[in-house]
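Illustration 12: Signal recognition particle subunit SRP72.
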Amino acid sequence: MRAAERLPIDFSSNKAYCYYRQNKLQEALDLLRGQEETAPVLQLESQILYRLGRMNDCMNSYEKLQKFKIDSMDLKINIIAALVAAGRASEVQTAMKAQKVDLTTRALRDTRSFELAYNSACSLIEDKKYSEAKEQLDLAKRIGKEELMVEDYGEDDIEYELAPVSAQLAYVQQLQGQSQDAMQTYVNMINKKAADLSPVADPSSLAVATTNLISLKGTKDAADSLKKLDRLFEKSTAPNHLQLVDLKLSQRQKEALYSARVLLLLHTNKTDQAHELVSGLLGMFRDSVFPVLLQAAVHVKEKKVQKAEEVLSQYAEKHPENSKGALLSLAQIAANANHFQLAADSLSKILDIQHMPATVATLVALKERLGDSNAAASVLDSAIQWWKNSMTEDNKLDLFMRVAAEFKLSHGRDEEACLLYEELVKSHGSIEALAGLVVTSARTNVEKAEQYEKKLKPLPGLKGVNVESLEKTSGARHVEGPQDMKVDVPEEVKKQKAKKRKRKPRYPKGFDPANPGPPPDPERWLPRRERSSYRPKRKDKRAQVRGAQGAVTRETAAASVSSKGSQNTSSSKTPAANTDQPKASNKSRKKKSRS
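Figure caption equivalent — predicted structure in token form:
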């Protein structure tokens, strides 16, 4: 009887899961290629892509999973995390409604899911709803603590497990301006780890706390911050590479850590190390904008502004879909270097912010610096047209029309300014717009100005003022001071002012005014050389001996040589004995001559 053939069993998916658990993400993804897209394979693939930071591919895998109609809370939690990491937090509510999940705080209390509340809070942080996010983080912490206490976790273990929630709560406090509370939380998490106590946070949460603490401290204690951050890195075998310690961090979190280290190196004037690290990052993150921004920052630190502008311009041309950050940085660097045309061109390429007030104001200022008021007016006209077509709640049309009218009025475009003010009066009817319309129309059409002037409400207290007679007067006379004003002063007041109070003179201690003694020298305040009684000292015309004791001057030696004829033969043969003797006084010379 023929034996039945056994089909080969494919363990590729199991092997890929083992690689995933060992953090060998690329090897795991390679094993899944070509596999049948079953629900387990797609779930594992989405998790690997999430860890690799490829959020768009991750979301594609989750969208493929929808056809399997899997009702899993873990799957819903992972979808929220992927949307937040992909920068699509605004889609979380819609995606969860499709999954029949209510993310309100009251509903989350009923689900009793710690991870769901935590991920929902993260989406609210991205949407800048900080108060709601704080409520849900507090809820997540309370639910997580109750669940872990049921499972007999100790206090230290509970604190360790809930460290991500604590770090996120501190981050919300930091965003809300409660810097001291946030800093205290970060410091507690870091110091317990540094003191080799039982760790209160997992390594990933510790890395987040360290980075956020550095951002809070800024340039203060940059060397100490650099030491704290270096604990999270280890040297790689590749040159100019630093690898993070095995941490489960998203791509954005890794970029934040590397960016913090480069900036700290620049603040501590370690430019060479920053250069080396940036060179390694350019190889590690080839298509990302953040190493290019760091490279430009290093060039600016080295005062190579033109090199920084070239680097950013090349990246923007090569990656137009991801060029917003590079173009903004290029505009800032160029504006600081007085390269106004390059700054204006860079801002003009970012189409999605052309209508924003800050962008419009910056572009108008740059065009004015270039002396091109027509281009500045065109920027304002384009912004007005965009807001006219916009259906947003926070419409800025009236703001831009008022600013544009003022700008055109100051640049001699009276008719255009008049049209803008007239449109503002018809649409909003504000008093400021009506007053501006009257002033502007007075330059172009006096009849129209008088017509709109009648709509202005009369000011209280001006009914009794005759404007025509006021215009005929020469105006108020300027008074230089109180001495120019003629005021009638009564005689009694003049006498009182004339009576001045006489104060007793104050004498030095021990001075008797009855016996003052000799008067003081009137020249006592002058220097001694300038006084009339000064007599300079007489100079000693006698020759002075300088040098060691026993030395004689050249004149004395010459005189002794010339007088050797008057001396006996024995004394002329021994001249050295005379040079060793001290110079004789006049009296001694007279005695010798007498003898």
